[in-house]
Amino acid sequence: MKYLLETERLLLREFNVMDADAMYLLNADPEVVKYTGDPPFESPEVAKEFLASYSDYQQHGFGRWAVIDKETDQFIGWCGLKKHEDGMVDVGFRFYQEQWGKGYATESAKEVLQYGFTALQLDEIVGRAAQENIASIRVLEKLGFSYWKKAPCHGIPDAHYYKLTRPN
């Protein structure tokens, strides 16, 4: 398996259809998707269809990536970049609940941001989180993001938007 990014504890790679069961279980946890605006997958087969048709890598050269724990070689969540219709690129992350509080979101997102600013030469990356999602807001702030605005996002009326610009 080819890994795109590596941190001290994590490996990041493109999704593949073998991740279907893991993605299904991740999104099936109501606490994991509580602040995302995303519905759970209806079944592992629907998750597999989603992964089989995931075209961000081909369209933009980047996307969300599977996060693998180096020690256990297990899928523990995802982190990556997403380009939206308006041209905005955001960083996102989602991990199994049992992985929360271990610093994986910060560790993986830090590497993803570095990749976005250096390899992809992005000028700006946005982070978004529901107002109530204090943990994700803390991650964005730890990464150096600055509060930008409050606006609706994927059915979340009070999403907080943060910006980070490429270091000079």
What do these coordinates show?
This protein is α+β, with helices and mostly antiparallel strands. It has a single domain, classed as Aminopeptidase (3-Layer(aba) Sandwich). The chain contains six helices and eight strands. It has an eight-stranded mixed β-sheet, with helices on both faces. It is globular, with a radius of gyration of 15 Å. The N and C termini lie far apart (34 Å).
Number of strands: 8
Low-confidence stretches: none
Mean pLDDT: 96
Summarize the main sheet. Answer: 8 strands, mixed
Q: How many helices?
A: 6
Level of helix content?
A: 25-40%
Structural class by helix and strand composition: alpha+beta
Q: Which strand order spans the largest sheet, edge to edge or round the barrel?
A: 1-2-3-4-5-6-8-7
SSE arrangement:
Layout: E1 5-6, E2 10-14, H1 20-28, H2 30-33, H3 44-52, H4 56-60, E3 64-69, E4 74-83, E5 89-95, H5 104-118, E6 124-130, H6 134-142, E7 146-153, E8 156-165
Parallel strand pairs: 5-6
Antiparallel strand pairs: 1-2, 2-3, 3-4, 4-5, 6-8, 7-8
Summary keywords:
168 residues; 6 helices; alpha+beta; 8-stranded mixed sheet; Aminopeptidase
How would you concisely characterize the structure shown here?
With 168 residues, the protein is α+β, with helices and mostly antiparallel strands. The chain contains six helices and eight strands, in the order ββααααβββαβαββ.
